Amino acid sequence: MNETFSPPIDAPTADTRRAPLLPRWLLAAVCLVLAFGFLDARGIWDPDEGRYTNIALTMLDRGEWLTPMRNLETGHWTKPPGAYWLIAASVSAFGETAWAARLPIALSYLACVLLAAGCARRLAPGSGRLAALIYATCLLPAGAAQLITADYPLAAAQALAMYAFVRYRFADAGAGAAARGAWLPAMWAAFALGFMIKGPPALLPLLAVAALGALAPGPSGAWRWHVLGAALFAALALPWYLTMGLRHEGLMEYFLGAEVVDRVATDRFGRHPEWYGWLKIYLPTLLLGTLPWTGELLRWARALPARVRAWRERQARAEQAGALLLALWIALPLLVFCLAQSRLPLYLLPTFLPLAVAMAATRHARGRGVPDLRWLLLWALLLLGLRYAAAQWDTHKDASEWAQAIRARSAAPVEEVLFVEDMARYGLRLHLGAEVEKLSRQPREQPRFNPEYDEPLRRELEHAGDAPGSVFVAKQALWPPLRQQIAGYGYRAQALGEPYRGRVIFRVERAPPAAPPPLRE
């Protein structure tokens, strides 16, 4: 039996529920423009975009795609390499440009649009096109569509996994057991892709899958397909972790301790760990991120308590399995994010796909479809305008501006930029073609994995401090004592031009030997 989304009690009758649809060509045009409009209008922004592109380009330079490295000396172990692989592949194919670096993010956005439509067609028949439109034009998904992080590839992998589950659980009437069951290994393969992008958080939608199986059991015999799928997941997702664990003693303990347990249970990373942090971060993310469709979100949320009461009955859960899955898909990951001590707005990005489906189902059940096209086009133009304004924003985060400033001050080609106790601008790797390092003034005790500094200043000076291709950057307030410190090491620091954004850009060369004292007659 084909189970579908059950509309609200006060929904219009089937005879009157004829919501206007957006023409496919116009929907496609809106999505393509929002995906690719101004894709390279701004430079790479640090720290996030710079870090991802830097690691991807370092992989290409080294010809070694397994070990994420922020430069030739220091590994970067906060995430598995899936997102870096996507960026590196795009840059390798299309050149070292901001457009190529952002292309995987734009494609992930388009994939989520298509998968929102696919899920809605099964969970809320008749609302597929509307769900695609809602997802494509929500402020957060559209705004994040050109921001280089792991969150959009993760969202696309999770969406693909849940689409495969929906195809299994809500298969067409008459679908054969083999054709239906084959979607479960596909689900596990997609989760493996997400696991290679961001690790354990990729598996959060499995909470909804397991909960639905307990509350509204599906077809019998699914366990065989899950066993096959779990084996496929292990074959795809675990080899990299095992390989790196064998190469780097203690790395698995670091992954599980710092990157999983500490992010969930401690305030180690200082990302809004207060007891009210979830309210401060996630409530605005949901209310503002779903604009201009926030009204539909509130209608869905307002109707949810009555549905939950109805779901106490087994028959109601079976009849409304689609609605139940949506509620679980939204609520369970959101609960985990609220309980975790590390909280950022983009953590909720994967949740916006089931939110879009739920909002589309709510609007469709009320007999409402696409709003006035003039209003829709104005909103799309506003989103593009915001994107253009961001590109014109004068910000210290723009690595392309830093690259111009360094080029203007350096007569020789720049091969290495060394930041002394300052934020490393890793976006320079793409815009300047230079390796980037962060130096401490003195030796420091640092963790073995993901240290803050690459090496002390003196060691860098001894290795290649006076190389003509090396340029240093330090804050103006640090410049006088730093210059004196460098002189004490037997080198001379020379500022290159005027300071830039409160920083002194300088070169270092060996100091000439002191002249012998004049002979006395």
Automatic annotation (TrEMBL):
GO BP annotations listed: lipopolysaccharide biosynthetic process; response to iron(III) ion
GO molecular function: pentosyltransferase activity
Cellular localization per UniProt: Cell membrane
Record protein name field: Undecaprenyl phosphate-alpha-4-amino-4-deoxy-L-arabinose arabinosyltransferase
Main location: membrane
Gene Ontology cellular-component annotations: plasma membrane
Lineage top rank: taxon: Bacteria
Keyword Transmembrane found: yes
Bilayer-spanning residue ranges: 21-39, 99-118, 130-148, 202-218, 225-242, 281-300, 321-338
Its membrane topology: Multi-pass membrane protein
Keyword terms: Cell membrane, Glycosyltransferase, Membrane, Transferase, Transmembrane, Transmembrane helix
Glycosyltransferase RgtA/B/C/D-like domain segment(s): 79-240
Originating organism: Lysobacter enzymogenes
One Pfam family linked to the record: PMT_2
